[in-house]
UniProtKB/TrEMBL annotation:
PANTHER family: OS01G0588500 PROTEIN-RELATED. Its EC number is 2.7.11.1. May be involved in plant defense signaling. Belongs to the protein kinase superfamily. Ser/Thr protein kinase family. The keyword Nuclease does not apply. ATP binds at residue 126. InterPro entries: Kinase-like_dom_sf, Plant_Ser_Thr_Prot_Kinase, Prot_kinase_dom, Protein_kinase_ATP_BS, Ser-Thr/Tyr_kinase_cat_dom, Ser/Thr_kinase_AS. It comes from the Eukaryota. This is non-specific serine/threonine protein kinase. Residues 1-37 are annotated as: Disordered.
Length: 385
């Protein structure tokens, strides 16, 4: 979720935001790029049914309110304390701009806190009290994820709001984030195979396509490798709706909003004007595709100058078959055909078109990725799909 200000000189993607610095974050530090034009989004709009997933009938609340979300459990702080052994350090799964994420245990049926190691494992995100804008993001997460349901969106089980304590309880995603797999050079983690990269790309693309085709066209706004979580079978689920926005309505092409997101992933038109299009998400998706193809971070200040911004550096290579081979992650050498790689390069290039209108829709992206996946599958397997 969240984004914060902080030290800029790191090799990880930098959030663009107006949120003050939170100490101790893993991948979150940012510069205040720009401030803001008030959002023209309707604050109160109704969601309705959408294909391949469901959108509850709840309303987006005026600022400062939590929606009625009948499918979410309201946890007491005491319950979550028990579930995490009093937020013991050995239960920490990770840390982001919002705060720490703890592993916890709940009874599968009642969602009552369970003894460590029994029942169902969950991930519990606890807001860092120093986070100034955290409340808005927390609220946005509850309101969006409480209303949306799809196999490629992480499931929010419930929340806790007690005094200053704000927490979110999610399904546990055993393989953690895509970022961990792509960039953390842990010898105990096998490099992601080409097939798994494609599987993850397809899952995440389906999640975005679902958001974009829902009645209100939800724009996710913070698509990046750290926000794609993986289940035990590398099924991808999008997490962190803290920055999500309802899309344009009444024939408008975009919403105008404060510029927030992550350096290296945010679309150029959005950074330049604050105009946020549904297709701004497609750009972010293109950046993640490029990260998966190359195994390199969107931004890395440790790379030589001219190579620090992955898109600027690699874009010219994507349309040239021979050059393309030289930039694909060596860890997946021999796992893909040149036809599949070339089509993946072309698709990435389309997603990164400077003009949002020239980018494909996420539905088209899903179809293209499925075709690429089919290229290297033996015929027999294709027929079973
Ligand atoms: N549902 C989950 N299941 C398992 N691990 C999780 C879950 N949610 C988060 N994590 C772990 O906690 C880490 C921190 O997540 P968090 O979303 O707070 O920060 P982030 O995604 O790294 O950065 P940002 O603040 O920009 O979102 C993740 O990298 C992941 O390893
Ligand atoms: Mg996150």
């Amino acid at each position: 979720m969240g984004l914060c200000w902080g030290s800029p000189a790191r090799d990880e993607p930098q959030p663009i935001t107006t949120r003050p610095f939170n100490s101790g974050t893993s991948s979150n530090y940012s510069k205040n790029l720009e401030s803001s034009v008030a959002s023209s989004n309707a604050e109160k709009s109704q969601f309705s049914e959408a294909a391949n997933g469901s959108v509850g009938g709840s309303y987006f609340s005026p600022k400062g309110q939590i929606l009625e979300t009948p499918n979410l459990k309201v946890f007491s702080f005491g319950d979550l304390k028990i579930a995490t052994k009093n937020f013991k350090s050995d239960t920490v799964l990770g840390e982001g701009g919002f705060g720490k994420v703890f592993k916890g245990w709940l009874d599968e049926k009642t969602l009552a806190p369970a003894k460590a190691g029994t029942g169902m494992m969950v991930a519990i995100k606890k807001l860092n009290p120093e986070s100034v804008q955290g409340f808005q993001e927390w609220q946005s997460e509850v309101n969006f994820l409480g209303s949306l349901s799809h196999p490629n969106l992480v499931k929010l089980l419930g929340y806790c709001w007690e005094d200053k304590e704000l927490l979110l309880v999610y399904e546990f995603m055993p393989k953690g984030s895509l970022e961990n797999h792509l960039f953390r050079r842990n010898p105990n983690i096998e490099p992601l195979s080409w097939d798994n990269r494609l599987k993850i790309a397809i899952g995440a693309a389906r999640g975005l396509a679902f958001l974009h085709t829902s009645d209100k066209k939800v724009i996710y706004r913070d698509f990046k490798a750290s926000n794609i979580l993986l289940d035990g079978n590398y099924n991808a689920k999008i997490s962190d709706f803290g920055l999500a926005k309802l899309g344009p309505s009444g024939g408008d092409s975009h919403v105008t909003t404060r510029i927030m997101g992550t350096y290296g992933y945010a679309a150029p038109e959005y950074i330049a004007t604050g105009h946020l299009y549904v297709k701004s998400d497609v750009y972010g998706f293109g950046v993640v595709l490029l990260e998966m193809l190359t195994g390199l971070r969107a931004l890395d200040t440790k790379r030589p100058s001219g190579q620090q911004n992955l898109v600027e550096w690699i874009k010219p290579y994507l349309s040239r078959k021979k050059k393309l081979k030289t930039i694909i992650d060596v860890r997946i050498e021999g796992q893909y055909s040149s036809k599949a790689a070339s089509q993946a390069g072309q698709l990435t290039l389309k997603c990164l078109e400077p003009d949002p209108r020239s980018r494909p829709s996420m539905k088209d992206v899903v179809e293209s990725l499925e075709k690429i996946e089919a290229i290297d599958k033996p015929k027999g397997i294709q027929n079973q799909l």
